[in-house]
Design brief:
It is a single chain. By secondary structure, the protein is of the alpha+beta class. It is 34% helix and 27% strand. It contains three helices and seven strands; from the N terminus they run αββββαββαβ. It has helices spanning 8-23, 83-95, 123-148, and strands at residues 32-33, 39-44, 47-56, 66-77, 100-103, 109-116, 151-152. Strands 1, 2, 3, 4, 5, 6 and 7 form a seven-stranded antiparallel β-sheet that branches. Strand 2 and strand 3 (47-56) form a beta hairpin.
């Protein structure tokens, strides 16, 4: 099945990310490419990251098509979604230079960061985005699980890459 793109800039961004991940000595060995959507998985150390190439519909430049690359890593599964965890995540978000914690529809704690795609996408910025996401997720997974319950999102043995 071919990947369907919503704009030419999303397609350009996807191919730049694909080329980068396939060439990168940091990521190429664990790269999983989805054949039906603009998404990749990589395992970096013990941390799984999803990289998605997304159209950016609502942005300040209405006459230009834009795309973003979002790297996301699940930090914990089953943590107690109570006020103390929400306060902790919001307080930690203030400390982050890039990216932020959030919850998905299943109540899992995630960390994500995005960079602007397109012809001028900076590959060092993309690499930094991905490495930041896996580093933050790895740093916080045990801390959050110990303080707020739940468990680490994934171990390397669980990921069939």
């Amino acid at each position: 099945m071919a990947i369907s793109f919503e704009s030419p800039v999303q397609a350009v961004t996807y191919h730049k990310v694909l080329d980068y991940l396939q060439q990168s000595s940091l990521f190429r060995e664990s790269l999983r490419i989805y054949d039906n959507r603009p998404k990749f998985d990589i395992l970096y150390g013990a941390t799984l990251a999803e990289i998605e190439v997304l159209p950016w519909e609502d942005h300040p430049w209405q006459t230009t098509e834009l795309a973003t690359v979002r790297a996301t890593s699940c930090v914990t599964v089953g943590s107690s979604l109570k006020e103390d965890l929400m306060y902790f995540l919001l307080t930690e978000n203030r400390r982050m230079r890039f990216g932020a914690f959030h919850l998905d529809e299943a109540g899992q704690v995630l960390f994500a960061e995005s960079v602007l795609g397109g012809d001028n996408m900076d590959l060092m910025e993309l690499q930094t985005c991905i490495l930041s996401v896996v580093t933050i997720a790895h740093t916080y997974e045990d801390l959050i699980a110990e303080k707020f319950g739940g468990h680490r999102a994934v171990s390397p043995q669980e990921v069939p890459l």
